[in-house]
Amino acid sequence: MVRKEVLREFLAHEIRELGRIKQALNLAEHIPAIDNLVLAVVPVSQGDPQQVASALKGALRDSDVIFPGENYLLLLMPGTDSMGALHLLEGLADFTGEDFRSFVYATYPEDGESPEELVSDLRRKARARLGLELT
């Protein structure tokens, strides 16, 4: 778990890493496992987000990062595209008991190519679909 105050720096680091890996492998084509990352909001309607985050950590990959919020969790999932996010979030919905349709996410590079664009897109979706103000 990581404090959400460092989210933008973490996103910037991950985006740079994706570019570095692709360049090091001399890849021109798009490969979802390398080129993508997902930033998702998981509402927590029951329980303490810190405790839910601790319980979820074992269900996620080592590369995934959890940022606990007030009544939600932010998940950063490197090497994940939209389809992978849907699959993972469905599993998390089963685990948390939350309605899967209440999860929203932004995908790099489709929804934004910078940390600011991704966070802005995610905030817009969370406000529109969940009524959540991400702080």
Account of the protein in words:
This protein starts with 6 loop residues before the first helix and ends in a 5-residue tail after the last helix. It contains 5 helices and 4 strands, in the order ααβαββαβα. The protein has helices at residues 7-24, 32-35, 49-57, 82-96, 115-130, and strands spanning 37-43, 65-68, 72-78, 104-108. Helix content is 46%, strand content 17%. The protein is globular, with a radius of gyration of 14 Å. Strand 2 and strand 3 (72-78) form a beta hairpin. The protein is α+β, with helices and mostly antiparallel strands. It has a 4-stranded antiparallel β-sheet with strand order 2-3-1-4, sandwiched between helices. The chain has a single domain (4-130), classed as 2-Layer Sandwich (Alpha-Beta Plaits).
Outline the fold blueprint:
Blueprint: H1 7-24, H2 32-35, E1 37-43, H3 49-57, E2 65-68, E3 72-78, H4 82-96, E4 104-108, H5 115-130
Antiparallel strand pairs: 1-3, 1-4, 2-3
Protein name: Diguanylate cyclase
Strands side by side in the biggest sheet:
2-3-1-4
Span from first to last CA?
Answer: 17 Å
What is the gyration radius calculated from CA atoms?
14 Å
Structural class: alpha+beta
Organism: Aquifex aeolicus
Protein name: Diguanylate cyclase
